[in-house]
Write a structure and sequence with these properties.
alpha/beta; FAD/NAD(P)-binding domain; D-Amino Acid Oxidase, Chain A, domain 2; 10-stranded mixed β-sheet; 8-stranded mixed β-sheet; 21 strands; 26% helix
Length: 370
C-alpha cells in the first residue's frame, strides 16, 4: 500500500454532488480538500443525466421534498453565473419553463402549481407538438442545464483552486477510531482526513465501516437515454409527457429519456429501450419518428427507500457525512446539497425543513458499532 495522503476534507465520489460540495467548502474558506473517485471524475450518473431542473414534475408538489427542490432551483442562476465567472467555462442554462403534456388517454393533470394550457396554447408555444395533445401545464422558470458542461466547469474550478482530484482509485472502507471517522481506504490506497463525505451515488451502500456496510439502503436504478438529430425542429422548452421527455440541446441535438430499470449495476444499452424511447419522442413530436438516433447511453440513478435523498451527518460516527440517494434529482439538488453539507461541516444547526432528509430519519438507520 502506498504512502497515506492526508487532507482536511475527503470527498468520496466525483459526480455533480461531490464536486459541488468541494467547491462550496472552498468558497467558504475551507482548504486541503480532495475528491477521490473509483473511475474518471464525472462519468457516471451525473454525465448520463439529461440535466432537467424540474421540481414540480419530479416531486409531489405540496411535499417537503418539492420545497427543497424549488429552493435548489432558485440557487441555479447565481450558481451557474458565478461558476462561469470563476472558471471561464460556458454552461448552458435554460429556464424558459417545462411543458407537461396530457394526451387524450391520460388522466387529467393536477394543477397545484403552474399555468394550465390548452392544446392550442401548447402548439402556439411549440408548433411541432402533436395535435393529439389534449392539454398541459407550463411550469415557468424550470428547464435544464447542460450537465456535462457543468461537470467540466466544476472540474476546472477544482483545478484552479488546488482541490485535489484523485481518479481511478477505489475507496470502499471508512477508517475510524473511537467513534470518529478518520479517512478512507481501498485495496491500494489510504487517505486520512478530518472530515469524510460519502457522495458515491448508486454505490453508496457498498461503503463499509469496521466491516459493516453503512446503514442506508441505496440501490442503482438504470436509466437509458437517446439523442436525436433535431433536424430543424427547434424547441424552446423541455417537453414532458407520461411516457417520456424531450430536452433541447445546442449542436442540433434533442435528448430523449428515459427508462427506469432495476438491473443492478448493469449499465448496458439495448435496442429495445432505444425503440421504446424513440416512440415516446414521436408521440410528442410526430416528425421525430424518422429522425436518426445519433447516440444512446445509460446511467445508474441512486434510489433511497422513500425516493428522497439522504444528506447530513451519519449517526454514531463523528465527522462522517452522507450525500446520496438523489435519484433523478442530483443535478437539480447539487447546489442545495452542497450548502447543507458545508453547513454541517462548519457546525451550523439544520433547519426544521431539512430534518426530513437527515440520515437519522431513514428507516434504514441503525447503530454502527465501531
Amino acid at each position: 500500500m502506498s504512502d497515506i495522503a492526508t487532507f482536511d476534507h475527503l470527498i468520496i465520489g466525483g459526480g455533480i454532488i461531490g464536486l459541488t460540495i468541494a467547491r462550496e467548502l472552498h468558497r467558504r474558506g475551507e482548504r486541503s480538500i480532495a475528491v477521490v473517485d473509483q473511475s474518471t471524475i464525472g462519468t457516471e450518473a451525473s454525465w448520463a443525466a439529461a440535466g432537467m431542473l424540474a421540481p414540480n414534475i419530479e416531486a409531489q408538489r405540496t411535499s417537503a421534498f418539492c420545497r427543497i427542490c424549488n429552493d435548489s432551483l432558485a440557487l441555479y442562476p447565481a450558481f451557474i453565473s458565478e461558476l462561469q465567472a470563476e472558471t471561464d467555462v460556458r454552461v448552458e442554462l435554460n429556464t424558459n419553463g417545462i411543458i407537461c403534456l396530457s394526451f387524450n388517454e391520460d388522466p387529467p393533470a393536477s394543477v397545484e402549481s403552474g399555468q394550465p394550457l390548452s392544446s392550442d396554447a401548447i402548439r402556439h408555444l411549440e408548433p411541432h407538438i402533436s395535435p393529439n395533445v389534449r392539454d398541459g401545464i407550463l411550469f415557468p422558470n424550470e428547464g435544464h442545464v447542460n450537465n456535462r458542461a457543468l461537470l467540466n466547469a466544476l472540474r476546472r474550478y477544482a483545478e484552479l483552486n488546488n482541490i485535489r482530484i484523485i481518479e481511478n482509485t477505489q475507496t470502499s472502507e471508512i477508517l475510524s477510531d473511537n467513534g470518529r471517522a478518520q479517512g478512507a481506504a481501498g485495496p491500494a490506497t489510504s487517505f486520512r482526513s478530518a472530515t469524510t463525505i460519502v457522495a458515491t451515488g448508486a454505490w453508496s451502500s457498498l461503503i463499509t465501516i469496521s466491516g459493516q456496510h453503512l446503514p442506508f439502503q441505496i440501490k442503482p436504478v438504470k436509466g437509458q437515454m437517446i439523442a436525436l438529430n433535431s433536424s430543424g425542429i427547434d424547441l424552446s422548452h423541455v417537453i414532458y409527457s407520461p411516457r417520456g421527455y424531450l430536452v433541447p440541446r445546442s449542436a442540433d441535438r434533442i435528448l430523449v429519456g428515459a427508462t427506469v430499470e432495476n438491473t443492478g449495476f448493469d449499465k448496458s444499452s439495448t435496442p429495445d429501450a432505444a425503440r421504446e424511447i424513440h416512440a415516446a419522442a414521436a408521440e410528442i413530436i410526430p416528425d421525430l419518428a424518422h429522425v436518426k438516433i445519433v447516440d444512446q447511453w445509460a446511467g445508474l440513478r441512486p434510489h433511497a427507500p422513500n425516493g428522497t435523498p439522504i444528506i447530513g451527518p451519519v449517526p454514531d460516527v463523528e465527522n462522517l457525512y452522507l450525500a446520496a440517494g438523489h435519484f433523478r434529482n442530483g443535478i437539480l439538488l447539487a447546489p442545495l446539497t452542497a450548502a447543507y453539507i458545508a453547513d454541517d461541516v462548519q457546525g451550523k444547526t439544520p433547519g426544521s425543513e431539512r430534518s426530513r432528509f437527515l440520515p437519522e430519519r431513514t428507516s434504514q438507520a441503525k447503530t454502527v458499532n465501531i
